[in-house]
Write a structure and sequence with these properties.
Number of strands: 2
Oligomer: single chain
Largest sheet: 2 strands, antiparallel
Shape: globular
Radius of gyration: 11 Å
Helix content: 25-40%
């Protein structure tokens, strides 16, 4: 499953409502806000996606 490059949430690409293409690659997002943030600086988010830290 692809990961939202902005918030690191897993996104089901089959049911994804929010996606965009950048440099020939499709990026999937969990919310419209994450998509907008990516589109404002795609160079930043496509090179350095957020690394999620799981804590319990």
């Amino acid at each position: 499953m692809p990961t939202d490059p902005v918030c690191a949430c897993e996104v089901d690409e089959q049911g994804a409502q929010f996606k965009t293409e950048y440099n020939g690659k499709t990026y999937y997002f969990c919310t419209e806000a994450c998509k907008a943030k990516f589109e404002s600086r795609p160079d930043k988010w496509s090179k350095n996606p957020v690394k999620a830290e799981i804590t319990r």
